[in-house]
Amino acid sequence: MNPLCWPHITSATVLIDSDRAKRNIQRMQDKAVAAGVILRPHFKTHQSVDIGRWFRDSGTHQIAVSSLKMAQQFERAGWRNIMLAIPINPRELAAINRLAGECHLTLAIEHEDALLALQTLSHPIDIVIEVDAGYGRTGIDWRQGNRISDLANAALALRHVRRVGLMLHAGNSYQASGDDAIAAVHQQSLERLSHVRQTIAAPAQAQLFVSAGDTPTCSRMSSFPGVDEIRPGNYVFYDLQQQHIGACDWDDIALTLACPVIARYPERNEVVVHAGAVHFSKDYLLSSERFDGRPCYGQVMRSSAAGWYPEPVAGAYVHSLSQEHGKVRMPAELIARTKLGDMLVIAPAHSCLTMAAMSDVVMFSAKA
């Protein structure tokens, strides 16, 4: 279906350019092969069984997810090597145990208390200990090497644990800007992870594996010393945030929102679209140069008969959201040409949350 057959799209709808997405997928797969690491893409970005097949076609066999429900969804779709890349929830142990009986499952822990929960499992699992190298979300601080070593060996001693590894997500790379800043986060994170790895005592040291990675560093860096597998996710679509920090180019963005105009306010240089916080996300950008110091939840793109051009419309962006309304700042001459019911094609600040929130999705090929 051509997404810009506007009569067929009546409400806020996610548009996915399959050509761009497949190109992004293959490029990351090729990079992993060249770097000598396994690519374990994080499927939380797309959460789609159909899109998951694009990864399999490129050579992917191992995946990461961020919820048990997601893990179950992809196991039913035939994926047999799954990492639940979020600290385990003891309330889900019965379902986790059933899942471990159906696939090669890796679980993440970040505290000694998790060992009590793991003892109740009856199927083999792998374990990764999450290390915090500076992001400050979850994980054991990288400076607590002895504690991490003790936890690794205690986990390995459990009856159903096959092997133990370290897991790192350098989410602080999302606050970097440009290759040099992204490289600095990458180098610092891997140096700290290497320090932890060297402190792990036997027997865990002998079979330890390392899983790391995030979209900015995996997109811009070409080597991953000390890492066995990388776990980027957002790269399948990219988004305005990734373009802003230099992790991708405009032509790499493979997901936008088609948003109908429902109100015009030339006197305040705004239109309103029926697409609000429940369609975009909580994330936004701030840039005095690009957005006049206002928050930007999405950038209006120049639309085409086959989707959209990799070209932003200068001065046109979503600067305010309520539940169903999005206020779009626009140049006066563009507002004059915009009618009620027109569709704006908008690249969201964060594609992961937009995709998770939306049920109306159109996938298309601009080459079709």
From TrEMBL:
Q: Name one GO biological process term.
A: D-serine catabolic process
Mind listing the GO molecular function terms for this protein?
A: D-serine ammonia-lyase activity
What positions does the domain D-serine dehydratase-like occupy? 254-365
| Presence of keyword Lyase | yes
- Specify the signal sequence span: none
Q: Supply the InterPro entries for this chain.
A: Ala_racemase_N (IPR001608), D-amino_acid_metab_enzyme (IPR051466), D-ser_dehydrat-like_dom (IPR026956), D-ser_dehydrat-like_sf (IPR042208), PLP-binding_barrel (IPR029066)
**Which keywords fit this entry according to its UniProt record?**
Lyase
What SMART domains does the database record attribute to this sequence? D-ser_dehydrat
- Coiled-coil region list: none
**Pfam families reported for this sequence:** Ala_racemase_N, D-ser_dehydrat
Similarity comment text for this entry: Belongs to the DSD1 family.
Name of this protein: Alanine racemase
Origin species, per record, is Aliidiomarina maris
